């Protein structure tokens, strides 16, 4: 494969510009209490995959997390549709939108699987993947993605420490 056929990794500025133009937000901001709630959920669910929905504002700031029942087996997730409906209604009443769906990959990595990309393309939000066996302080404990028909873009996650 020639050098010309490799696409260079986009710069952080290009990523932020694309995210803001296409999706209206360029990052996800998790307060310490919200981050710790997600950490507890994925830790308690292991070895099953955990799944939850994050409600927030258009600027990417998370305000609420709702844990979803996982109706699938140990190495996949399928969030309960009625629970999703209830979560979306609650967020709507609170003036929030679904800004992200998170799920864990016990024993896996923080990239999206083919099944994650297929299922996630139906949602206009970010998708956070978490590896519960890694330290929550590790930079590779979780990563977030935006999915469209032709590309997957990594979304920066800001974890507030206070």
Give a nutshell description of this structure.
The protein has 162 residues and is of the alpha/beta class. It has one domain (10-159): Cytidine Deaminase, domain 2 (3-Layer(aba) Sandwich), CATH 3.40.140. It has helices at residues 12-23, 32-45, 81-93, 114-120; strands spanning 28-30, 51-56, 62-68, 97-104, 126-130, 142-147, 152-155, 157-159.
Structure description:
- This protein is α/β, with parallel strands linked by helices and 162 residues long.
- The protein has a single domain (10-159), classed as Cytidine Deaminase, domain 2.
- Helix content is 28%, strand content 26%.
- It is built from 4 helices and 8 strands.
- Strand 2 and strand 3 form a beta hairpin.
- It is globular.
- Residues 1-7 and 15-23 have low confidence and may be disordered.
What is the number of beta strands? 8
Largest sheet: 6 strands, mixed
**What is the alpha-carbon Rg in Å?**
16 Å
Query: Count the helices. How many?
Result: 4
Number of domains: 1
Net shape: globular
The CATH superfamily label reads Cytidine Deaminase, domain 2
DSSP strand content:
25-35%
Neighbour order of strands in the largest sheet: 3-2-4-5-6-7
The low-confidence runs, each spanning 5 or more residues with pLDDT under 50, are: 1-7, 15-23
CATH topology: Cytidine Deaminase, domain 2
Determine and state the CATH class.
Alpha Beta
* Average pLDDT level: 85
The second-level CATH architecture is 3-Layer(aba) Sandwich
Instruction: Spell the H/E element sequence.
Output: HEHEEHEHEEEE
Structural class: alpha/beta
Quaternary class: single chain
N-to-C span: 47 Å
């Amino acid at each position: 494969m020639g050098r010309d056929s490799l696409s260079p990794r986009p710069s952080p500025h290009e990523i932020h510009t694309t995210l803001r133009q296409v999706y209206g937000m360029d990052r996800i901001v998790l307060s310490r209490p919200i981050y710790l709630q997600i950490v507890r959920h994925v830790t308690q669910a292991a070895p099953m995959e955990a799944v939850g929905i994050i409600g927030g504002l258009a600027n990417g700031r998370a305000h609420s997390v709702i844990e979803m029942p996982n109706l699938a087996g140990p190495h996949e997730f399928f969030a309960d549709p009625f629970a999703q409906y209830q979560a979306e209604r609650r967020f709507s009443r609170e003036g929030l939108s679904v800004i992200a769906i998170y799920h864990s990959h016990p024993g896996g990595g923080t990239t999206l699987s083919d099944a994650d990309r297929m299922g996630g393309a139906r949602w206009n939000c970010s998708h956070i993947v978490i590896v519960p066996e890694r330290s929550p302080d590790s930079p590779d404990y979780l990563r977030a993605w935006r999915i469209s028909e032709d590309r997957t873009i990594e979304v920066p996650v800001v974890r507030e420490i206070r």
